[in-house]
Amino acid sequence: MLERLSMAGKNVIITGAGRGLGKQMALALADAGADIVCAARTPEQIEETATEIRERGRRALAIPTDVASSDAVDLLVQTAIEEWGRIDVMIANAGGGGKASLKDVTEISNEDWYDTVDINFSSVFFCSRAIIPHFREQGGGVIINVASGTGMRGDPRLIVYGSSKAGVVTFTMSVANQVARDNIRINCIVPGFVLQKTLESEDEISATRSRGRFIPTQRVGEAWELGPLALYLASDASSYLTGEAFVIDGGGLAGGFAPSGWDVTAGVGGLGS
Amino acid sequence: MAAQNPVVPPKVADGKLRGFDLTGRRAIIYGAETSVGRALVETFREAGATVGVTSASSQGDALFALKKVAAGGPSEAVDLGNGTNVQVATKKLVKDLGGLDIAVVAPDTYLAQPLAKTSDADLATVISGNLTATYNAFRSASKELAGKTEDGRLLAVLSGLALRGLPNVSAYAAAQAGVIGLVRALSQELGGRGVTTNALVAGWMLETPGRGADEINDNLLQRYIPARRFGRPEDLALLAVYLCSNASGYVNGHVVSVDGGALKHL
Question: Which pTM does this prediction carry?
């Protein structure tokens, strides 16, 4: 059964592969035998990821791409296919908080709105639209989108980002229904708070531990933890899974009815008398 | 106690992949005498785990199936609805296994009956075989996990009826849905001790009784599934391995459905 996890001979595009979750997903898939096309805006970072992939004995390409531009995404897919002949997996991971964060809803400008929607939501649509014809032609493929826990509940600080990520979840479910008969699977990962970089100073570690106390696992997630999940979703191990929003958040979304650490044994809870 | 940040990525055994290596981990699969149970036992062993099993019921047929699925490993015949029984069996298995890291329960006491015709005894049987069974197993297992392992895992394997309604399955749907409430509550209660609790929901399976004709054109249910095929036990197995590995510690309280897309329809 474990052989179903093998990615040997499979080519994967990952956007936002220069750092954080995207980089860790790229490395985990390379460890399982995949060759990786790394895309992101910053060339230096994707070159670095590509180098680490080659050190693992796999092939890697670094293609600078702004995923908010549909032309750039089309070119990314076209270039990758020209170089390697086929692509088996597309991971639409790139995204970001954007300029709309922390603003009152009345102060969010059109530009703030469209910037945030384009990088987080339109980008996911561009990736699917560009790759699906290729998947149909070759008889199948896998898409993984990266959403966010902020797309499942309200957060006053992240109105546009959260709405965009909610869009990613519904887009994933809807497209899954449309393309399943073409042997294409599409799922999304819904991360909660996940550290994007290595903790270096004692202050960073202490601040991270404080944040972790608000999460049921009493710690925050780390970027490497996305690797095995991405591998599961990208490989044949998940061949019957489609349209899923896979939450990895330490249990945050399974709770959320009372403050963290709230003690109901003191007699609070239920509907009351 | 649970790991704090930074968390060191676990090393993996030769030829294994992170997230899919159960080497050195000890598991009990409760209610293992089904086709899903068998696939889980085999795949957990392939991934390197030591596995003990219990039956769901202590009746004759179940015992025969249990020995077969145990394949020489430790096994205990129990009635999962009986808390004392489950507690004793768990302790025996933990002794055989040398400890416990993982408990998986696949409760499936099914009943298709209209509400008005469901007797008190019917309801009690179905609640007991699904909800009480899982509660008993998780309670007994958690005493062995909590504080004794950094990566304790509780996993319930459920039916799509835990999430959706259908006519004439009220008792079963309620009992299965109850397990989801249990999973969410335990994810909050045990998460801080390094024990995660999750549920894996199966869609329509090839083994589902009454799933209809084999030919898809004659099978409305099959055509309802976006993947246009029924699920097989092996479709669940590697996800269960991942959810029980020492690399899935940040997946907690999640209900994931392996359903060919059936639960994502409007």
Answer: 0.96
